[in-house]
Amino acid sequence: MKKLLIYLKKYKKESILAPLFKMLEASFELLVPLVMAAIMDPGIANQDLPYIWKMAGLLVLLAIVGLTTSLTAQYFAAKSAVSFAADVKHALFQHIQELSFGTLDEVGTSTLITRMTSDMNQVQNGVNMVLRLFLRSPFIVFGAMIMAFIINWKAALIFVVAIPLLSIVVFGIMMISIPMYRKVQEALDQVLGITRENITGVRVIRAFHQESQEEEAFHEKNEWLTRLQLTVGRVSAFMNPVTYIIVNAAVIALLWSGAVQVDENVISQSEVVALVNYMNQILVELVKFANLIVTITKAVACGNRVQSVLELKASQDYPEITREDEREKSPYAVEFKNVSFGYHASGDHALHNINIQIKPGETIGIIGGTGSGKSTFVNLIPRFYDVTEGSVYVDGLNVTAYSKEDLRRKIGIVMQKAVMFKGTIRENLLWGNENATDEELMKALKTAQALEVVEKKELGLSEPLSQEAKNLSGGQKQRLTIARALVRNPEILILDDSSSALDYATDARLRKALSELDGTMTILIVSQRTASIQNADRILVLDDGCIVGLGTHEELLRSCEVYQEIYDSQFKKEVQANG
Questions:
Q1: Tens digits of per-residue pLDDT, 206-239?
Q2: Which residues are within 8 A (CB) of 498 and not within 5 positions of it... i.e. 6 or more apart?
Q3: Residue from 472, 467, 469 nearest 453 by CA
Q4: How far apart (Å, rounded) are the C-alpha atoms in residues 461 and 454?
Q5: Over the stretch 471-515, which tens digit does the pLDDT of each residue have?
Q6: 10 Å Cβ neighbour count for 557?
Q7: How large a percentage of the chain has pLDDT more than 90?
Q8: CA–CA distance, 328 with 335 (Å, rounded to integer)
Q9: Of 568, 542, 157, which Cα lies nearest the Cα of 350?
């Protein structure tokens, strides 16, 4: 949490003015019991009506000034807290964007969403409350005790006993509850994780009739979260009654001591009333302070969780400048040398001892069963993940020697899941190349067989897309994402099963258009369909992370059993469908 506070440096003025105005308000509040005492004695005692009205006017003035200073303090506190939270969220978002795929897989999406939203809201609320009350409440507590000593030191000794007892209760409960709140937030992560999983996978759950099992799993996690929240709630709720008991016991002692001293003519009745008012002020402020401690506890626990994300280091380090001196003369656009790769916490490698050389301008088809390592293979080229063993080379240079900008500039990739963002079609396509002209966009759209998608839209390239482009079909999104990659005009184009939603005719036109591109572009096509890759220069067949076949379509039909099985299963289905 301490490291987050550096983001408050920009708002020093607001962070100082907020508590100062709150203490100014508290100073006026401390004067109220003395004014009340003055109204009683000599005002009421001497039946001095003008004096009483004068003191009543003073009370109203104190209230107006106190309200003004309170509102001013609230303005500065809110401005500081909201601006601080905005800066931290910006830094957090930027940091998450820089994390590697491996780190994101390890942390989990649900955890990052919780840190960015729920945790940051708690931190923002904590900062706001601290600026408003953290100094005000102790100021009034000790100020009231000092005023009590000014009135009567013997009666004020009761304050000296009560305040330490209250402090022990408040800080004792705080020390117990902080670890509990941390566990609550961790349990909330798990509940959000399983909720997100169920929502995104609802169709699969229904298809396999697993609703009851998922409901039971959710119920179990939710029950655990509920039990933790109830436990920490009981501990926190223990604070208010204990503080009330201590304060009310002090009030009783104060009334008894005051009655004795009034009887002995040591102090006046108005002074006893003032002392009781000061004790009540202490009660109110300590209750506020107790609730503030709960808020601070939550904020600290959440702040530590946010800080832990900011302290995450990407599992990859990129040089600022591409190390050209390490480049070797190579006739290959892409080369894998003894590459093996395993995901974090995975018991086995996803790829085993991969060796392959791909020439510039060559089209490589990649096929295999589900989980055979096709996407993993292509994800190693743009260095989304680092190899566990071996090396990957692009244009004779190890991918680890490239700066991130230089490496990604060479590669255009279309992921398995077609992702579009809220905005216009033009804005989405310009992700590929922000300086591209409309003519270049149209050329890419034509190649990707997406020109008709744009032409059918009333606003053309300016047509707005909803979040995740839900106003487009799956095939339309896939074609637009291919166009976005083509706009970059990359040296290496990777299509990771990006035509799965296209019909065979559109897929065939797309393959034909890609084959007519500049002959220097190296193309890797991952597909489940043999028809999509059978015209490739070479086809790479993967099975359980190993290369089991490499050659042309005809060669593999003669020599690769895995490829034969895939081809036969699909060919028979096509024959049956056409028959």
A1: 888 889 999 999 999 999 999 999 998 888 788 7
A2: 414, 415, 416, 418, 478, 481, 482, 526
A3: 472
A4: 6
A5: 888 888 989 999 999 998 899 999 988 887 788 888 888 888 888
A6: 16
A7: 34
A8: 12
A9: 542
**Two tokens, residue 516:** 């007519």
Specify the range with the lowest mean pLDDT, choosing from 44-48, 488-492, 562-566: 44-48
- Any idea how long the chain is? 579
Query: Distance between CA 48 and CA 384 in Å, rounded?
Result: 85
**265 & 403 share domain:** no
Instruction: Verify that 62 and 181 share a domain, yes or no.
Output: yes
**Whether residue 282 sits in one domain with residue 154:** yes
Q: Are residues 303 and 334 in the same domain?
A: no
pTM of this prediction? 0.74
Which range of residues forms the domain containing residue 458?
A: 330-578
CATH assignment at residue 192: 1.20.1560.10
Count how many domains the chain has: 2
Are 7 and 104 members of one domain? Answer: yes
Neighbours of 524 (CB within 10 A): 26
Helix (H, G, I), strand (E, B) or coil at 422: coil
Domain membership flag for residue 96: yes
Residues 62 and 209 placed together within one structural domain of the fold? yes
